[in-house]
Amino acid sequence: MLEAFQDQGYVVFPGFLDKAEIDTLKAAVDRHVSAQPRRHAYEDEHIGALIWHPRVSEMVDELMGGRYVFHHIHAARHDAGMEGVSWHQDYEQYPQTNRSHLMVHVFFYLNGLNGTIGDLLFVPGSHRFATDSHALTFLGDSDLPGMVTVDDVPPGSVLIVHSGMWHARRAKPGGEDSPRWFVDASYCQSGVRWPSYRASGMLADLRGRHVAAGGTRPWLFDESQFFDAARARELSGSLEGSVLLDLPQWKTP
Ligand SMILES: [Fe+2]
Predict the structure, then answer these.
(1) Which residues contact 74 (CB under 8 A, 6 or more apart)?
(2) What SS3 state is found at 75?
(3) Can you give the pLDDT at residue 252?
(4) Distance from the CA of 90 to the center of ligand 1, in angstroms?
(5) 108 C-alpha to center of ligand 1: Å?
(6) Which pLDDT score is estimated for 198?
(7) pLDDT per residue over 32-90, tens digit each?
(8) pLDDT computed for residue 251 by the predictor
């Protein structure tokens, strides 16, 4: 599994969650998508607890090979007729220059994928090349050389992908009788600071809930490993030339 992940950038666990977990999470996602006013997915008791799901954590532990931090969790219900998503990648970095540390996305397909509503597309190996996420938008969801289509996985399947992997969702007809319940959670390897949009309140809240639930991984929610992505986004618009020249190693050879 580890070798395949290093090389290809993904690993698939068909039917990973059990029936009770699937049912609880589907109900939670339904509540989340219809909540007014809108709330963040992490605020839901069950969606939040998925962040430290014991068997998922074991897999992420293996891939990270050491400490890491939680980045975000999103939940959505894809109903029939849902639009697709163009090719992009979700590795967080300003500017995109390297892939020294691992960031992963864990995709939960609560009732699987069956070729209706939307297929997951990705290009194995594409995670090795630092690419601005928006650079790929012009490709839409067109076929790319070597791409893999995921359109047949059973309920409760989990995919872990390198966040820098190019991926898309291709809209498909059908699915009027059954939407796709989808959750994605993301984690970043410790050792560098990562961009985040709302780290402080979210992390403190989750850390408290995790510990209250008997969790032993408060280090997942360490604010000090993040910086403000909004500020970074602003500043990255004013970069000039080769930013490598600003490194202390370059200044004092
Ligand atoms: Fe994505």
Answers:
(1) 41, 183, 184
(2) strand
(3) 79
(4) 5
(5) 13
(6) 73
(7) 999 999 999 999 999 999 999 999 999 999 999 999 999 999 999 999 999 999 999 99
(8) 86
* Cα 167 to averaged position of ligand 1 atoms, centre (Å): 6
pLDDT of amino acid 253: 66
Domain count, the chain: 1
- CATH number of the CATH domain containing 26: 2.60.120.620
Distance (angstroms) between ligand 1 centre and the Cα of 168 equals 7
CA–centroid distance, residue 95 to ligand 1 (Å): 18
Question: Whole-angstrom Cα distance, residue 209 to residue 201?
Answer: 12
Question: How far, in Å, is the centroid of ligand 1 from the Cα of 123?
Answer: 13
Tokens of 224: 């000090």
Cα 34 to averaged position of ligand 1 atoms, centre (Å): 22
* Distance from C-alpha of 129 to C-alpha of 144, rounded to nearest angstrom: 15
- The helix or strand, by DSSP H or E, that contains position 216, with its residue range, turns out to be none
What range does the domain containing 238 cover? 2-251
Please give the structure tokens belonging to residue 92: 């967080």
**Cα of 88 from ligand 1 centre, angstroms:** 6
- pLDDT (0 to 100) of residue 102: 98
pLDDT < 50: residue spans in the chain: none
